[in-house]
Amino acid sequence: MADTLPITHPLESRRELLASVTGPVRLELDDPVAAADLRIDPSGVDAVADAAGGALPMRPESWTPLPDGLAVRLGPDEWLLASATARPDEWERRLDAAAAPAGGTAVDVSAQRTSVRLRGPGARALLAAGCAIDLRPASFPRGRSAQTLLGQAPVLLVAHADDDLQVLVRPSFAGAVVDLLVDATQA
């Protein structure tokens, strides 16, 4: 008997649907990643930055790259740290051990969100069809993030470039978000 279950992407059943989208935007599924929610006073983030492999963003609604992932500022004392190469349990332990001396904590939230990338010159216009925030590059440039609604689903948006946006969404809403995006490409 195996001691771990195989990882199945929450949107596996919609892979072909996403691949069928043609035009000025491509919709792609990101692979699952190790993710931890870090709660710590901002004065203590430097110790965690060493464990994460890079600086954590200090500006609200922003993100910074890590060697194999990203760090997103979610609130005054909250960050989402993701790693494409770490195992979720190891990632949580490493970050929690670094945060503890400063009174912080890290909790594994790897299964809390799944990620869809929108790439191409139509990415921002497509998101704007279901999102109330200003997504123009001048208002939402690379390095920005925002917690908002897409349709009626709570999402975290991350701007990687003018034509590369990431939508992180809870698995229970992911199918509805993908269906909304695919429908919007056909409008």
What does this structure look like?
The strands form 2 sheets. The protein has a 5-stranded antiparallel sheet with strand order 1-7-10-9-8. A 5-stranded antiparallel sheet has the order 3-4-5-2-6, covered by helices on one side. The chain is built from 5 helices and 10 strands, in the order αββαβββαββαβββα. The chain starts with 14 loop residues before the first helix and ends with a helix. It has helices at 15-19, 45-52, 88-99, 123-128, 171-185, and strands at residues 26-29, 34-39, 63-66, 69-75, 78-83, 105-108, 114-119, 145-150, 153-161, 164-169. The model has no long low-confidence stretch (mean pLDDT 94). The longest helix is centred in the C-terminal third of the chain and has 15 residues, at 171-185. By secondary structure, the chain is α+β, with helices and mostly antiparallel strands.
